Amino acid sequence: MGFKCGIVGLPNVGKSTLFNALTETAAAQAANYPFCTIEPNTGQVAVPDPRLETLARIGKSAKIVPTQLTFVDIAGLVRGASKGEGLGNQFLAHIREVDAIIHVLRCFESGDITHVEGRVDPVADAETVETELMLADLESLERRFDAMAKKAKQGDEDAKMRAGLMERILRALREGRPARTIGPTEAEEKAFRELQLLTAKPVLYVCNVEEAAAARGNAHSEKVAAMARSQGAGHVVISAAIEAEVAQLGEEERKEFLADLGLEETGLSRIIRAGYELLGLITFFTVGPKEAHAWTLTRGGRAPQAAGVIHTDFEKGFIRAETIAYDDYVRHGGEPGAKEAGRFRLEGKDYVVQDGDVLHFRFNA
Asked: What pLDDT is attached to residue 37?
């Protein structure tokens, strides 16, 4: 099960530097000019989770396998992208393919790095990109609405629902509000997803600040924080330059380097966790002598779906899920202790998997 976060923003805001640090590679070329990243670069990133090491120690597992997120470095958008400016059509298509948007905003002053619009104003930058995405959505919906409205007038009930949904989204876009603000009903959720709108995707704002502001942010990042709160969106403050340095260090050097800067963990760890939450994901675990393995499931997923994450045959032949909550597994020293304490459960097809569950599946081959 793959989940993709697309890293977007104007040119020269630190997207590729951030991507390089995230994947600890130099796969994305970081250069001081627009469009240095013409094709999206993709990297798999382990989701940091200290619970996995604890489980491996208790279960005496020989190997640890973390769950992962995919990050896509998408070339910088510019004003007019919705009309094809600056290779806009390609970039918008790449954004359409991701599940969530990591929006990097320049929150640092520098005479060495050119801003594409000649000023540092992260809120205005965010509005520029959001406007281009809304214009692209508006054009896409307007092309499709008339045909759907015509079907609705002919008495097609599904078309009536879809036309009503599209009409509400069009109204929001014309008022300058992204599609995600309309709050589709449960009955509309599937139709809403099928529209594949750019502004329907959840957004995390990443404030890229100078090194001295990495721990507490600055005036620019405070403005972004206020904007994010007003939208109900998340935000993270990082210094991409620091993250690039930290990515090259060993574990002990990394801890010392971060401590000197007043940081407890890397900004990347915060971004990865925030991206995970943004996508509405939870982690469940399997633990055995061979490996302790973290797996990703959409929040609200049931036990057979979790089994299917491991192997499709597990879902098809699902019988029961042997279940121990993470806290119970740790408190009682593993599976035998949890069983003895009565904290071991057999759950059926309707069980909603909880974050941290340690599971073992029974299934028919």
From this structure: 41
Could you tell me which of 2, 10, 14, 17 has the C-alpha nearest to residue 244? 17
Per-residue model confidence as pLDDT tens digits over 149-167: 999 999 899 999 999 999 9
Which residues of the chain fall short of a pLDDT of 50? 1, 25-38, 81-82, 85-88
User: Nearest Cα to 63, choosing from 296, 292, 323?
Assistant: 292
Question: Which strands sit side by side in the sheet containing 291-298, from one edge to the other?
Answer: 63-65, 291-298, 281-287, 358-363, 318-324, 345-347
pLDDT for position 29:
37
Give the residue from 348, 269, 312 showing the smallest Cα distance to 46: 269
d(C-alpha 345, C-alpha 347), whole Å: 6
Edge-first strand listing for the sheet containing 203-208: 41-46, 68-73, 4-8, 100-106, 203-208, 234-238
Place of tokens 């594409």: 116
pTM value is 0.80
What's the CA gap between 197 and 78, in Å, rounded? 19
What pLDDT sits at residue 117?
58
Give how far Cα 309 sits from Cα of 71, 333, 347, Å. 20, 26, 17
The packing angle between helices 267-278 and 15-23, to 10°, is 90
Beta-carbon contacts of 92 under 8 Å, excluding residues fewer than 6 positions away, are: 81, 82, 132, 133, 136, 198
Residue 286's nearest CA partner among 324, 252, 237, 317 is 324
Cβ-Cβ contacts under 8 Å for 90 (sequence gap 6 or more):
38, 75
State the distance between the two ends of the chain, measured CA to CA, in whole angstroms: 22
Residue 42 and residue 70: Cα distance in Å, rounded? 7
How many whole angstroms separate alpha carbon 79 and alpha carbon 255? 40
Each residue's pLDDT tens digit, 16-25: 888 888 776 4
